[in-house]
Amino acid sequence: MNRTLIAMAFAAVLGIGGLMSAGHDEHPKSKVKVKTLSERDIVEKLDAKKARATTVEVTIEPGDASPPHRHPGPVFGYVLEGQYEHAIDDQPAKTLEVGDTFYEPTGCLHRVSRNPNAKTRTRVLAVVLHPRDAKQVAIPEPPEKKK
User: Fold this and answer.
1) Domain for residue 70, yes or no?
2) Digit-coded pLDDT (tens) for 47-86
3) Predicted TM-score of the model (pTM)
4) How far is CA 138 from the centre of its chain?
């Protein structure tokens, strides 16, 4: 039931939106590719602000990963292809398989986002709900300062 609802939400966002950019580009130090599939203003508000839903397809080559980052709103994801290792905040990393879904609360640290497989690529579909005035839908985490 949950997967059906998420799939319907993805289909609605994909079907309504056009191909527009959202400031969620490739991470400069990795080969992770992020393609914006749609952006759509929505009537629901997020923290009393006008909101938008941005749908992206993330492709991660074998063994590659994206740097730690945060999102300005909740993220709902679905693994389309391969395996996806995912961890937020201090939670242990989980390896997700094709058909698995995940959720990230607003502003949490997405500290692990990688393809654990050395031979096949990973593709993830993600819908980010965010304030319309957000400059980026993925905000890189500053590197930790050494003590």
Assistant:
1) yes
2) 899 999 999 999 999 999 999 999 999 999 999 999 999 9
3) 0.78
4) 8
